[in-house]
Amino acid sequence: MKLYRFEKFDAKRVDSLRRGSVWMSTPDQFNDPFDCKLKTYTESMMAVFTTDSYREAVKGLYKNASDYLNDWPSLTWVYNKKILDRIFKWMEAEQFDSFLYKDAVNEILDHIRNFRMTCFIDGSPNDTIMWSHYAANHSGFCVEYEVDEKLIDTDSDGTFYISPVVYSSRLPEFDTMEMLLTPSEFAMRYLLSKGINWAYEREYRLINFTEGSSQEVSLPAGIHPTAVYAGLRANKNTHELECIASELGLDFYRIERHQYLSELKAVKAPPNTR
Length: 274
What we know:
This protein is α/β, with parallel strands linked by helices. The chain is built from 11 helices and 14 strands.
């Protein structure tokens, strides 16, 4: 599968291309103010369970969770010790304590919202809108990647996951019961949901299940660059991009205006000019 990233031209992004890495950010740095800010509620929980039966169900699910963390560290993408401490504190209280329950829920949300992510486009390097929005008004560059989803899943020790974003006209709301009884499914839906007005981007998300601030992260096995495209207005940076592509053994293209249509086209650089 071919995916694309559109970048502005700056030293940080050019150097990350050379090093086989990408810049990953937490969702609060994204340009969608609703990203990972979805609503949660608790009303339907009591329609299905009594408070006691709900706590018993959670106890049954989590009774060996601490052992799972020790035996399979990759499971910490959903749980960590702090989350489990909050859940057990709520479970072991004499009665259902809404404040302890809220603490556990908020700890899970904080954990998920601090995963680092980066975005790819399932589209074309000739996409005028992507060049305008993400490549500094056509003055940046685009990188084409070959992506093997299965290899990412099996070779990254559970620390990376890639999936398409799901777009909907109404953003989903989440019952807090989902967070505790089906945490993996909840986390994926929460991280991959966006409004329908973003559907034109055809976005794939690479998620790094480690908490932290925005930073450069090495690409996992299963993702590698195959081509570099210089924007229509890259001008003096075009030659440097061409040199980088040559160093890395990547194909190099220049974006040009189509002669007859209101479209862009990618023109491959002849080997003798590189």
